[in-house]
Amino acid sequence: MAKPPARRARGSRRSPAERARIQALFERFEAAEADPRTELAYTSPYTLLAAVALSAQATDVSVNKATARLFAVADTPQAILALGEEGVIPYIASIGLFRTKAKNLVAAARILVDRYGGEVPLDRAALQALPGVGRKTSSVVLNELGVEPAIAVDTHVFRVAHRLGLSRGKTPDQVEQELMTVVPGPWRTRAHHWLILHGRYVCLARRPKCQACPVADLCPSGELGA
Predict the structure, then answer these.
(1) pTM of the complete model
(2) DSSP 3
(3) Catalytic center residues
(4) I need a surface site. Which of 51, 125, 131, 209 has the fewest CB within 10 A?
């Protein structure tokens, strides 16, 4: 029996009007902020990797406060190794899961020193093999450093993607796959930042600020904040 044709991504079946709406959404985001960046503070690929890994289940503000102290004394894998788990903990104890994060940070630093000479491998598989580094963290790092376009899906991106009608995915991975299909190519490297910032400051989970939303007229979810 012949196999059924492969299912096309939903984005490939969108109408011209829907594609035009999505185009307009990202034109608005670009007009408001042409070069969005992560709000995590970093000075090198390693400090970016460490900050993103530490940000799981924590706010960027709390992570920046912790890493300002940590990176002042240890901003390389070698220096983190010298501190060890017990040395790292006092610097990051203010953020969630700090003991597990300290363990992973030191274990990852050891791998970076032993296998990569203290450098961060800018390869998805190698990054995701590091303790405490999953797909979302690797996507943020690779996208932020301009290695490859990626749309990391956290709770903000997941919520905004659904409200703006960009995805119906039930899992972060499904939402990521659909966003990479429907977001026009020129904006894929910046889409993660636009969506996360929109969710953080405008499209809030409980009381979205629809009246202040720059894309309200393009949003299929209506006046959620009314």
Answers:
(1) 0.87
(2) P
(3) 136, 154
(4) 125
Q: Please provide the distance, in angstroms rounded to a whole number, between the alpha carbons at the two ends of the chain.
A: 54
Residues of the chain scoring pLDDT < 70: 1-12, 223-226
CB 96 within 8 A of CB 87: no
Q: How far is CA 78 from CA 9, 81, 135, in A?
A: 44, 5, 24
DSSP state of 120: P
Sign of the torsion angle spanned by Cα atoms 182, 134, 65, 120:
negative
Could you report the per-residue pLDDT of 132-175, keeping only the tens digit for each? 999 999 999 999 999 999 999 999 999 999 999 999 999 999 99
Q: What is the chain's Cα-based Rg?
A: 19
Note the helical H segments in the chain. Answer: 16-32, 45-54, 60-73, 77-92, 98-116, 124-128, 135-144, 155-163, 172-182, 188-201
Helix 155-163 with 188-201: angle, nearest 10 deg: 90
